[in-house]
Amino acid sequence: MRAPPSELPIRFDDVTFDAGGITILDRVSLTLGAGAPTLIIGPNGSGKTTLLRMAMGLLSASSGRVTWDGVANRPPIRRAIVFQRPIMLRRSVGENIRYSLKAAHIPGDRHPARIEELLALVGLDGMAQRPARRLSGGEQQRLALARALARDPAVLFLDEPTASLDPAATKSVEDIIRAVAARGIKVAMTTHDLGEARRLAGDIVFMHRGRIVETGDAASFFRLPQTGEARTFLAGDLLL
Length: 240
What we know:
Blueprint: E1 10-19, E2 22-32, E3 38-41, H1 48-56, E4 63-68, E5 71-72, E6 79-82, H2 93-103, H3 111-121, H4 137-149, E7 155-159, H5 167-182, E8 186-190, H6 194-200, E9 203-208, E10 211-217, H7 218-223, H8 228-234
Parallel strand pairs: 3-8, 3-9, 6-7, 7-8
Antiparallel strand pairs: 1-2, 1-4, 4-5, 9-10
């Protein structure tokens, strides 16, 4: 499972993204490097999800440049993303993972062992035959993580993966994220939950109105934020 960070660093150089006449990302410059998870936080509408999708390669910049290990337009072979509300295929748990293994061109004779390994990693042991759409919300999110990890990614992007989960399901997902990061896979994740950001982040990217306002070591950011916007956000006040 250990994935060398061949996609890294991911570099945004003065990137702007416009959609429908609205600027979603505004001259963003950022480097995502190897190491502990990067948590992207900020108010709703600040551009977090768009940043993540662009880092995945799903969106193209209106201006500026995004590169992966120094290369622009690199196919997302070693990248994977889990969305906030993943869609389950109308198949069993095991067949959902098998679909991802086939898409990643993993030889068929390796599928049974790989499925078993991935189910163990996400805590769904013994559930390979269960219909995926009958899983609980937390179980579906864990299956979505298993499908993403089937690609053996160097970088895993997560878009608010615990947003609609109860505390127990949230802890299960966070434990998986820690296990994934410990295996050398870079995690970049958006969250609206500051407690979760404190628990998981190695570093923080704080966004507001499509711009990156502040970045830095997570402990330092939470202890002594450098900008007024960050202090307002961390205090729980409205950031306009």
